[in-house]
Amino acid sequence: MAKISRFIRLVKLNNYHSHFALELLLLTILVSVAAGNLLLKATLESAGASDKSLLFSFVLEHPDLNPRLYESYATVQENLAQSFIMEKQVLAASAKAETVDQASEAALPTLSGSALLKPNPAGNLSPVSGKDIEVYTVRGGDTVAAIAAAYNINERTIIDENGLSLAGLIKPGQELRILPVSGVKHAVKEGESISAIGKKYGVDVETILEYNEIEIEEHIFPGEEIIIPNGIKPAAPTPERQQYLADLKKEDYQKAAIPENYLGTGTDFIWPLPAVHRLSQKFSSKHRAIDIPCRDCQVVASADGIVEIAGWQTGYGNTILLNHGNGVRTRYGHASKLLVSAGDHVTQGQAIMVSGSTGRSTGPHLHFEIRQGNAYLDPMKSLER
Known about the structure:
By secondary structure, the chain is an alpha+beta fold.
């Protein structure tokens, strides 16, 4: 019995040691696996594609065992490399395009390295038909051309609106009014119509109405400002032109009183400009006279008469009006020089003036009229040539 009890105790002890050894073995395996995984993870983080695969590692070390697999792996690696390069190029191009777009939106025409920024509103004028007129403050290096390009309008629009010289000289700090479109701004005057405004600037009525959102043509009022798209401001007249326009309006002549009983000596008219016997313009409903072209030529009285008017008259320039009696008169216009005075009695064929181009004239010529009361007669039907 004692031997049996000893055997049983030995078996229990052995079982105890057996269980402990098994547990120790399992613990050792667990620690080894964990350590291995940690080591593998650290290695994979810095390893290449080939290092992460035992199969590829084996193939690379023994290419002779499976040439096809080795070649396939090489092809895959090459494709991956090319894809990576292409991806970098696409990203670089996209980044460059984005930069260019941003730059094109922000950068405006430059001069002397100074960028013109838009907008730079120092303030706004009142809206014109829902379209603002901006005020731009000039910076160093700005030009009218650069500002016009930035606002997409022509240079003439800026020059005209701001009263600049044709040279377009501007200086830093100067404020310029910028219209929303190429053209001109017009302040409506008393009695003006859209058609008259359009004719002045060379723009049709519908364009003006549509741009300014005017429904009824008559609904414009004095003082109202409207934009004339693509309108061209009439050029200011030169000093010579201003003088010419002033001369057209002036009246500077002498007039003699003709006796009521003056009958004259007849109305057999002769050609008034002996040096030339041709016309530059005939008698018509719009030109109730004849024009005889000649520069500095002697003009004679077409019939006996009294000088009723001598001097400057609107449109005619230097002119002579002869009264032949019985309500008949002849007029001689555009003279460069008068040879008789108001009240003088002249005879047929007597020199009375020298032809010229004064008044509203298209060139040196004699303007010759024959009047019977208030009616104008065709001189070619009355003249003896």
